[in-house]
Design goal:
The chain contains 18 helices and 18 strands. Helices cover 39% and strands 20% of the residues. The protein has 471 residues and is an alpha/beta fold. It is globular, with a radius of gyration of 23 Å. The structure holds alpha-D-glucopyranose.
């Protein structure tokens, strides 16, 4: 089988979020699951940060031109091989040499170009995949162009990692920017706009989301960001497969970024990482419970709840709290203020920093993730791997991966609450703090949390099954 993954980011090359984790680890896992004769390739844009780190293994495949509406655009193709998987990089400095990945006024045009470039890649390399696995709206133009091309028989799985981002544009630029004609209008039109995600969902042979729960949630008005009509119409081809994580990369026993390696058998050594994180945060080095968040500062991550009760939790308990992440200015401001209102108890690091995030995962006691919606969520699994007990809201992948602790039976691998309600969250945090004080129970829970298998193994098998079912 020949599989081509299309996405906008992939580890270890570039990452702004969970998508990069998935594209960096799923393809190799699929290759292991399907057999080494499976030809697995990935294509992403050649962003400047990737170029800067490119080593000697990167080679130029071709350089030429692609056409997008009336534009003739330079298109370089580079490649390197990692773990048996070929990674291609689409080069065009006009579109991709920017200090950020997304958020430009011309994102639609940038990823339309990327979509054209993917077809060009297929032609240049002669690599005609059996299955294209496209991810999120940035890959939607590629799906639309592919399904209109001579390669329309290629099967497409389109995965929604987050339905809130759809790639919506004014209908007026359908021809001029996307090079689509009036005949394509119906495919991409939603609510009077161009909606790229809708176009890809409509044309794909199968659609998936990154957890089972989220696949059912997006059929509802509350979770679908306006698209539930479209998804209900595509219901028969919709499934959910829960993400795994790269358990070799996220391994407290071998992680070079943390001060002291440890495993479930040497749990005592986790404490040294806690001391290190307390130093980083400017906290006293003591046994006060340390709860962290590592998150994009976006409202759907549950910050309404945190804003509502953080001060109360700090006043009523001995908890310490640290957050790592960047995002909305208003949230950054809230946490800066909290840090100055509670010196020695609240710390903020407003940055996206993978190395530092490992110190947060390893050093904390509890990991808070009260998302309003969460397609899958990887942080709760990463935290678990480092023996940091997740406290989550029961939504999407959080619901599928974290089962609430039952102190009487010892079952469960975290703490959870159902409704998007600040005081429900506060009650659960306080309950977790109570368990934390019972050292014996807490240690048992921590070991249990660390023991859950969040590797890709089971999910890679499911993807292989899904790919086969399409052929
Ligand atoms: C998006 C989702 C997140 C998911 C990730 C990888 O970032 O918001 O829930 O884990 O994609 O699929």
């Amino acid at each position: 089988m020949k599989i081509l993954y299309i996405a906008s980011e992939a580890l270890p090359f570039i990452s702004t979020g969970g998508l990069a984790d998935v594209i960096g680890s799923l393809p190799a896992s699929v290759r292991r699951a399907a057999g080494e004769d499976t030809d697995v390739r990935v294509v992403i844009p050649f962003f400047p940060a990737i170029k800067q780190k490119a080593d000697d293994s990167f080679e130029l495949v071709s350089h030429g031109e692609v056409t997008l509406a009336w534009r003739h655009l330079y298109c370089g193709i580079w490649k390197t091989v990692r773990d048996g998987v070929t990674f291609y990089f689409i080069d065009n400095e006009y579109y991709f040499d920017r200090p950020f990945l997304y958020g430009a006024y011309d994102d639609g045009e940038r990823f339309a170009f990327f979509g054209r470039a993917v077809l060009h890649l297929i032609e240049e390399t002669g690599f005609v995949p059996d299955v294209v696995h496209a991810n999120d709206w940035q890959s939607a133009p590629a799906v639309i162009y592919l399904k209109k091309s001579e390669y329309s028989a290629v099967k497409v799985l389109f995965t929604i990692h987050n339905i809130e981002y759809q790639g919506k544009y004014d209908m007026a630029i359908l021809g001029d920017v996307f090079g689509l004609s009036d005949a394509d209008r119906q495919t991409v039109e939603y609510d009077g706009c161009i909606n790229l995600l809708k176009g890809a969902v409509t044309l794909a042979d199968k659609v998936s989301t990154v957890s089972e729960r989220y696949a059912s949630e997006i059929l509802t008005e509350y979770y679908s960001s306006g698209l539930y009509h479209v998804l209900r119409a595509s219901r028969d081809k919709l499934t959910g497969i829960t993400n795994g994580i790269d358990v070799a990369y996220y391994d407290p026993a071998n992680d070079p970024e943390i001060v002291k390696n440890y495993s479930a058998d040497t749990l005592g050594d986790k404490k040294e990482n806690k001391r290190e994180l307390q130093r980083i945060c400017g906290f006293e080095e003591n046994d006060a419970p340390l709860m962290v968040m590592v998150s994009r500062l976006a409202s759907h991550k549950g910050f309404d709840l945190v804003k509502r009760v953080l001060y109360d939790v700090l006043r009523e308990t001995d908890i310490t709290f640290a957050i790592l992440g960047t995002g909305e200015a208003e949230l950054e401001e809230f946490f800066r203020t909290a840090a100055s209102d509670f010196p020695g108890r609240v710390a903020v690091r407003l940055e996206y920093n993978k190395a530092l995030s490992k110190k947060f995962y390893a050093g904390a006691d509890m990991f808070l993730m009260p998302s309003k919606s969460e397609p899958c969520g990887l942080s709760q699994m990463i935290a678990s791997r480092y023996g940091t007990v997740p406290i989550v809201r029961e939504t999407g992948g959080l619901f599928d991966t974290i089962k609430p602790y039952n102190e009487f039976t010892g079952e469960g691998n975290g703490f959870s609450f159902t409704n998007y309600n600040a005081h429900d969250m506060m009650a659960v945090i306080k309950y977790a703090l109570g368990i934390y004080r019972d050292t014996e129970k807490w240690e048992k829970l921590t070991r249990r949390v660390m023991g859950v298998d969040f590797s890709w193994n089971a999910s890679a098998e499911k993807y292989v099954g899904l790919y086969n079912s399409m052929l």
